[in-house]
Description:
The protein is mostly helical. It is 66% helix and 0% strand.
Amino acid sequence: MDVNISQKSDVSTPVFASKRRDMGAIVHILSAVLIPFSLGLSIIIPAFLYVYHNYEYSNGPRDEFLVTHLREALNANVTFLFAAIIHGLLSIILVGFLTGLVHWLVLVAWSFSAQKALKSGEIYRYPFTLRIF
């Protein structure tokens, strides 16, 4: 019995695309929720996955829809990094703690909206976000 073990799965199947989209949804939520614990990690995760999927290191066809969502998550977190510097300066007069908390809660809400848009097949653009990448 001759069995070819080296066969690759068909990456164009809807199941594979669904798994990629699930990973994109997790990135939206996880990167926003991790910000209070590790701002660097919340930027590294979407950056790594964006580079991985954008420059075709992954096996299979490039998913432009997923790359767009990963880019948006990365841009939102980098924008939050810039805003965190301003929140840090405002914390000198004790306002920065409140503005930082409000900004983070709004980012988490936007991340859930982005995750819902990704699941329904729509493009989502984070409001008030610098488009760096």
